[in-house]
Amino acid sequence: MTYLAKPKLHHPTLAKNQIGYTRRDYEGAISTLCAGCGHDSISAAIVQACWELDIEPHRVAKLSGIGCSSKTPTYFLGNSHGFNSVHGRMPSVVTGANLANRELIYLGVSGDGDSASIGIGQFAHCMRRGVNMLYIVENNGVYGLTKGQFSATADKGSKSKRGVTNTDEPVDMIGLALMLGATFVARSFSGDKKQLVPLIRAAIEHRGAAFIDVISPCVAFNNHPGSTKSYEFVRQHNEAVNRLDFIEGRSEITADYAPGEIVEVTQHDGSVLRLRKLAPDYDPTNRVKVMNYLQERAAEGEVVTGLLYIKPDSADLHQYLNTVDTPLNQLAERDLCPGSVMLERINAALR
Amino acid sequence: MKPVEAINDFVVKFANVNGSGSASANELFARSILRMGVPVSPRNIFPSNIQGLPTWYEVRVNERGYQGRRGGVDLMVAMNPQTWDKDVKEIEAGGYLFYDNSKALPKSKFRDDVNLIGMPLTEICNATYNDPRQRQLFKNIIYVGALSALLDIDAGEIERLFSEQYKGKEALLQSNIKALRLGREYATEHFSCPIGIRVQRANAVGNRIFVDGNSAAGLGALYGGATVCAWYPITPSSSLAEAFSRHCQKYRVDPATGKQRYAIIQAEDELASIGMAIGAGWNGARAFTATSGPGISLMQEFIGLAYFAEIPVVLIDVQRGGPSTGMPTRTQQSDLLSCAYASHGDTKHVMLFPEDPTECFELTAQALDLADRLQTPVFVMTDLDIGMNTRLCDPFQWDDTRAYDRGKVMSYDELEAGKEFGRYLDVDGDGIPYRTLPGTHPERGAYFTRGTSKDRYARYSETGPDYIDNMQRLARKFETAKSLVPKPLLTPAAKPARFGAIYYGSTSPAMQEALDVLSERGIHVNALRVRGFPFPDEIADFVATHPWVFVIEQNRDAQLKTLLVNEARVNPARLIPILHYDGTPITARFIVDQISQHAGARTVVPIRKAVS
What is the value of ipTM here, to two decimals? Predict the structure, then answer.
């Protein structure tokens, strides 16, 4: 039995959000991943972010491909429709789903095998098109479900659990997303919930293709010395460029900040992202500088995290296609069918 | 030598060079005959190339309305030196060869039994035009002008076609008319016009329309309510998605806001195009993709997902010659098996077989209903011959009272009222469960869609009984599909017949003609045109009532026959395959020859009659 329902009994003192739901209302079935898996922390962060954002669970559609990471949508948002599609092809399915109903929130969950190997093409084109979605890659550098083969994000020179050294160059998902036109690009670490939850919140509210690469150690196959995706390695090499503190309205700055420590980014809907800078002179709205910075830090062996890039006046596929505001799946005969009189005119033109 | 004499019943073939602008001139030729009330069926025979390789345009003129390819050529318009020898060889004895004699050709290049009509086209063009591009383009119009005199085509009809085409472009109109008259006058002066084959005004076109199958299918998708189209360019299906796009720009833009009531994505490959269509179908929009054989191969994994996860989606397969890249610009009906059983595991899919553009329109619209009703992929199996050739066919029809069948979708109200929802629960006994669309209800009706096995409530399950329960329900659903797909159509023989014939799709026009010819020869055949799979029971009944049934197909391996044996459980010993698969459209001559041979071998002649 691989499906376990969670008991529905809630503690009466559990805090409710503005629409009356507790955090538990955003949970899913019990995870069947390994104890200590980074992916479970990401699921918890998604639950937390959706609860904090007062999202009605049924307004989210969660889609995934195949692999450990792609199993996780079962473990959060149990009242949302989910779609576990085929390996590496979640992006196309989300694209179609999004075209059908522009009003829902689309959450795509994938892994490094799913998105950097078999699905790299679909990942790339989904970013290019600006599908309005949050695309999370739970990146552990290894194939978990098939027991420990290297994935395409495994760093060159890193060692597998069996002692094999990886000789291939890694696919840099962040670099790809930036190059391909994603308008929100972030990296985080499953072990840093404080950083991850606000990033997920901001990404959900972002219009356009939002990509978060979350380093998520695999406790079973990639958490040993010699791995560059282990808890220990990431903790030692994590270099956060900023902290996302506020993501709503123009609220007062209440925390104590040194002058020049804050970056504010106004988004398409007027909301403001407030970023506390950790790296001096880091400007997350300058794509070229961001790309340079990331390359430099990567050469030093650092794993740069935080909100790496954001395009303030972002747009999405529906804007590019100029589709009607009403979701396409709600259009009826009168909106879609030109009728028999028009057809007779079409016939006449074909004689 | 007796020259071919025929009124309103002949074949003209144009041999041209790809990219020389001949296509529009040739189509003009065909349309002018149509305007004289005489049916024509033109066919493009073209290479996988944009410029430089040989291309042909074959026009069959036939007042009786036979639109299949006839075979043989009565008048060859030989404009391509590259293919000269082959083209000359193809002419029927007593036929005509129209050619450019600006440069003298040795006698050995001609045939004694063919009438020669040499015209110095290049010379005339060079004398009249300075611009090389004009010389080329107007050469085509000049030969149309000459042909109009030779074949007694009313030049007024051609000029009317020009004025429709170049409305508001006076300069273009006048220069085309000038070229046309130039050719016509030369022919009138130098040849005895008309020649033995000619067009005579008739009233045999009626209210039929002249359109290609891909445009028609695109229009069917528009009328059928498709809002999402994802595709990847591949011959011969590209013009289908492009036609849909054109129709949408015309008829699906909100007049108030200028915004689109549709979304079309040219995807990065066929995997993505079917993925998008499935995502949209899952989310309640009518979605389709158009492709050809290689695309179907690439989509296999996704098709299995849509079958098993029960997602409505329409695939229009404009078939071409396979396997592999095969003959990308030639026609075949060779994807039946790969579509019927597409994907791994036990899968079966619904297929519809349009015979012409009219049915491309109707069956594409119907496929969208069927996909929603059955919550499964539905294939429209058209082909290059129907898709990329302009065909005279019945006008499109639409009943304004027709509502889209959105199938079993549980609403907010039903969920709110407490109606039981099990995504894979067979509540009606027809194998079709209810589905919900994402975003319907805050607390009820959400479920997880997956390609893995599950129980009736969409919960992951690998237990044998759950798996079998689900697979048997899917089989029940396929059984239900039998009663929903279009029924086969019977053309009974004029006299009691021992032979039956089963055919489908683009074989139809050749078959209709073949049946008439066979009947004149005393071979009576009851013919059944299959229009849908799974096969309605009428098909097995038809086979059971005939000792021998010809199954006419355009593939090597008798794919429909295989399906008939596998799925309709008919007796294979009764089935005689008639197979045409050289990439050209099947002809009535081929069918008649094949059936005559088989029929001869299977007809017992009473001894008394044989000796008398």
Answer: 0.95
